[in-house]
Amino acid sequence: MLQLGTVLELLDQGGFVSGEDLATQLGVSRTMVWKQIQTLRELGYKITAHPRRGYHLVARPDKLYPWEVAKGLANQLIGRTIEYYDELPSTNQRAKELLAVVDEGTVVLAETQTAGRGRLGRSWFSPPGTGIWLSIILRPPFSPLELPKLNLLAVVALSRAVKAVLGFRPLVKWPNDLYYQDRKLSGILTDVSGEWGRLEHVILGVGINVNQRLNDFPPELRTKAGSLRMAAGRNVDRKDLLRGYLQCFEEEYFYALEHGFDRSLDYCRQYTATLGRAVEVDDGKKVYRGEAVAIADDGALIIDHDGQQTRVIAGDVQPLFDRDGPDS
Questions:
Q1: Dihedral-angle region of residue 290 (phi above 0 means left; psi in -120 to 50 means alpha; beta otherwise)
Q2: Residue 147: count of CB within 10 angstroms of its CB
Q3: Is residue 132 a contact partner of residue 241, using CB atoms and an 8 Å limit?
Q4: Which of 167, 137, 203, 175 has the alpha carbon at shortest distance from 265?
Q5: How far apart are CA 184 and CA 39, in angstroms?
Q6: pLDDT, tens digit, for every residue of 126-170?
Q7: Cis before 89? omega within 30
Q8: d(CA 183, CA 185)
Q9: 170, 180 in Cβ contact below 8 A?
Q10: What is the dihedral sign for C-alpha 54, 56, 61, 63?
Q11: Tens of pLDDT along 19-43?
Q12: How far apart are CA 204 and CA 64, in angstroms?
């Protein structure tokens, strides 16, 4: 696959490139060049050929191929290795299977998931070619108590990436969702293992609704789900967005490793879809109702009800009234 990326780099020079020049620069035979051109065509690349002028790259497919995502990605850790699949039941499940044989920072990426999972056992709608469905394998030197902050960090990185790539800023909904105009754009599902007060590994599953139109969602999701395309009013380049997210995630992750989570938590407090709202929080054992008044330094949500404050570490949050937050 790396060879295919090299062929594309040579074709990217513009105009036609002869088979002989490609063979010389790649150090392979012209027959091998032809085979690789055929492979690229089968992968969706539009490449024309002229008997005397050579090959010309006309168009790229809307696919998240690793060599496409890696183009211009200068990360040291996150996304240095990308395991790409056209279809998976679940990227988190595949990441679990790969834990023993891949390095930290490996990204598992699929064009579609047939059994994608959301929080609280819900399914995650993962249609082909419209979103970004990935899992990031981490081995951080954190205690399990810091997991809520790591979830928030992952959402902060995505909000920053959307702002950088598309020019508007979605809001962070505690504990791990991204919202814009009260529609959910993204969610995080975390799988962990550890012992003796330390996380052995963390798999961050990230689902991002990118280019869906409203009618692409199942009827039961159309009043609450949204996509970046719906927010931006135009089609979004998934490769640019994914590359931007991996860059922002690495920046936030490295900062947290060295300095802690203060920067991510401050972002959550400033660009919030939760604080200042009357909410209902279900942590799976109890339902809490009140005003979300703060995000604590450990990532917990503080709820005020009749002057009594309650800390919630994790849970499903539903607003009890609408509120417009900052979006720029």
A1: left
A2: 20
A3: yes
A4: 175
A5: 38
A6: 889 899 999 999 999 998 899 999 999 999 999 999 999 999 999
A7: no
A8: 6
A9: yes
A10: positive
A11: 999 999 988 999 999 999 999 999 9
A12: 18
Closest C-alpha among 147, 161, 251, 255 to residue 204: 147
Q: 146: which 2 tokens?
A: 């810091």
The structure tokens 């991510």 sit at 264
Give the 3-state secondary structure of residue 15. Answer: coil
Strand partners, 108: 83, 135
And the tokens for 116? 């994608």
Q: Which residues pair with 257 in a beta bridge?
A: none
Of the chain, the percentage scoring pLDDT greater than 70 comes to: 94
CB atoms within 10 A of CB 193: 12
For the entire predicted model, the pTM comes to 0.90
Report d(CA 37, CA 22) in Å as an integer: 11
Q: Which contacts of 224-229 are long-range, i.e. CB under 8 A and separated by 24 or more positions? A: 224/182, 224/183, 224/184, 225/125, 225/183, 225/184, 226/180, 226/181, 226/183, 226/184, 226/185, 227/130, 227/131, 227/185, 228/162, 228/166, 228/185
